[in-house]
Amino acid sequence: MKDNINPSHYKQGKIEAIDALEAAMLPEQFEGYLKGNILKYCWRYENKGGVEDLKKAQWYLSKLIEHNTPKEFVHPDAVYAKEPQKVTSFTQDPLWSKL
Question: Which of 2, 29, 87, 97 could disulfide-link to 25, CB 3.0 to 4.6 Å?
């Protein structure tokens, strides 16, 4: 099935176009890019792409949510633990409080 929301020509090579854009921009620039695309597709959906444009706006909104969701990371010392110690920020790291 053809994906008109995130077509295959954006996924050629080893990196997807959206990931290259994110890597090339400061976080606030990338957020602006995402917000601009959300606005563009919502603005034009009635006169151009209809529901497909709303789905494109939704795709960019999902990326914006993902971009603003804190990433969990596993503390390097947890590699030796039986269960990984997941923390969402450095300030939750017990070693951080000792500094």
Answer: 29
